[in-house]
Amino acid sequence: MSTETQRTFLTDLEKTHGRRLHRFISSRVRIGADVPDLVQEVFLRLLRVERHEAIRNPQAYLYTVASHVLSQHTLRSAATDEVLRFSNLLAADLRGSLDSDPAAEVETEQLFEELARDLERHAPRAYATLALHRYHGLELKEIAPRLGVSYNMVKRYLAQALTFCQQRLAERE
Q: What's the pTM value of the predicted model, to 2 decimals?
């Protein structure tokens, strides 16, 4: 199928079903800021289909793809929520240990500095996300425009940063 035929197919689908698709996705996600990214993901997946003419019912196919995108989004969100819970527990645990011993406080501070340097070298955007969230207290939705990325990308960066820190801490034990 030619690029022009693909573009026409997608344009027609968007004109006919775009608003309903947007409402469909909006009614199934907790964070409204995710909706445009999810709608875009649906159309990107449709763009990858090589034989649009083989689709007998484009509307049904569109909503099937949307359902798959929503399922994957739900799984990613649950994983991100788990990473955030781990982050909060880790921070509380480290704060508790700092209250008891000045030597441990210095050691922990050095560990944080080393982790920060390693993370900044390894993944600068993940480091920036973690720093803005943890040290500056910004919400993830506030970080997205500062980094010029979507809310979902900020969640991925934070998950990447926390996973990196968790792995480095596990290597030290």
A: 0.48
